[in-house]
Amino acid sequence: MSKKWMRLDNAALIFPAVRRRRWANAFRVSATLSEPVDPELLQQAVEELMPRFPSMYVRLRTGVFWYYLEELDAPPKVREDFAYPLTLMQDKELRSCCLRVMYFRNRIAVECFHSLTDGTGGMIYLKTLTACYLTRKYGAEIPPEAGVLDWREAPRPEELEDSFVRNTNGVVLNDHEPDALRMRGTREWDFLHLTTGVIPTQALLEAAHRYKSTVTVFLAAVMEESILEYQAQRCPNRKKRKPVKVTIPINLRRLYGSKTLRNFVLTLNPGVDPRMGDYSLEELCKIMSAQLAAEGTPQQMAGRIAANVTPQQIALIRAVPLWLKNIIMGIIYTQRGETKGCINLSNLGPVKLPEAMSPYVRRMEFIIGPQRTYPNNCSVASFGGETYVNMIRNIREPELERRFFSRLVELGVPVLIETNKKT
């Protein structure tokens, strides 16, 4: 009997083509519970969810013209967490399964190759997995709400759609922009450094409101300010400095009302050119707010979607063999992908759970791995009155984290630092 297979969504196509021996684009979502995790019950929950999430229980396969996803014969085995978050997903593992489910003490962690889904889709899977686990362990009655799906029902068609194709307007947006500063450091090949800033959400909201901005804009502006100082110290000649831009993923579900569990995110790169002069934090917040408002409209984003979708619909391109597509996509990724920003700042926002889960869950987090050429990345999620700002890096020097979190403290935002410091 032939296995079911699924095309990669529009955003997912690039990730298999540009992965490298020492890099694959992945992210982690995790839930910290009030009691230690029972691995046997967690394995049962993973198995029970398999029919409900067919787009998650897949392996990466190579076709003549495209990569595609193929259903698994059996659900992945739960494993104990090890080493450090987001250890490399090598090709052999991706050909077996693109999803990891792990546990460590009180924590359930899910790691996804980005061709499966984005942070929102991954968090929905984690919430539903955690709800199913808690039901098995405690007999809790958890309603399907606040991002928890009813795992006993069949998947809905809208959850499996490629929402990029449905929401393109066919008018390609010309979005040429200058390359941004690329930060450097001493590369580490066998470890990812993770620094978590635990911040009272109310204090962060108050600071953002003082600058008439959202939390995402405020954090991105502080990050931008930190990078501007970093560059100024290394490049005293202002005329030789490069633009400083923070890449911000935009969840398109909110713009278009999509229910997809697959990727549906595009990025914007708001920023400034330091050759034009110095910028106060207030000015950075105003500039970033204005750029995001202007570029993040449904009409503008539809044009960006069209720029990605339209080439795939050209018959000549569809007929190009995969090995040649890989070369072409690699060139496009190098020229238009990561070169336009200095760092990602991905904010999932407040993570909400059904009230019935609140006695059992202490913490919810989101971590994106370093990009292929970014040494640093930043991801944010809020839960239970705390905001968790996770900064990850594959270089030895912690300079950006030090500048960023120190600046938040200077601004009156208390920060508790946690780290997986290498011993």
Q: What do these coordinates show?
A:
The chain is α+β, with helices and mostly antiparallel strands and 423 residues long. It has two domains: 5-166, Chloramphenicol acetyltransferase-like domain (Chloramphenicol Acetyltransferase, 2-Layer Sandwich), CATH 3.30.559; 193-310 and 337-419, Chloramphenicol Acetyltransferase (2-Layer Sandwich). The chain contains 13 helices and 16 strands. It has helices at 14-18, 39-49, 91-94, 119-138, 163-166, 201-210, 215-234, 253-256, 281-295, 298-312, 315-318, 322-337, 399-410, and strands at residues 5-7, 26-33, 58-62, 67-71, 79-80, 99-104, 107-113, 193-200, 244-251, 265-268, 271-272, 343-350, 361-368, 376-383, 386-393, 416-419. The longest helix is centred in the N-terminal third of the chain and has 20 residues, at 119-138.
